[in-house]
Design goal:
By secondary structure, the chain is mainly alpha-helical. It contains two helices and no strands.
């Protein structure tokens, strides 16, 4: 589980770093790279949160 959390946090950092420097990305629109980074982050976040929910049952 720690591995999934680390991957999720790394993806979040990559997305946040890109967003801070990309002049194309906005809150409602992303460049292709920004979209890919966001999708990776969102997928890993969903997987992590789903695993957390399953473990609480």
């Amino acid at each position: 589980m720690a591995d999934l959390f680390e991957r999720y946090q790394t993806a979040h950092t990559a997305h946040r770093t890109h967003r801070a420097t990309c002049t194309t990305c906005t809150d409602t629109s992303r460049c292709p790279t920004g979209q890919q980074l966001y999708q990776s982050f969102a997928s890993l976040q969903d997987a992590y949160l789903n695993r957390q929910r399953q473990q609480r049952r």
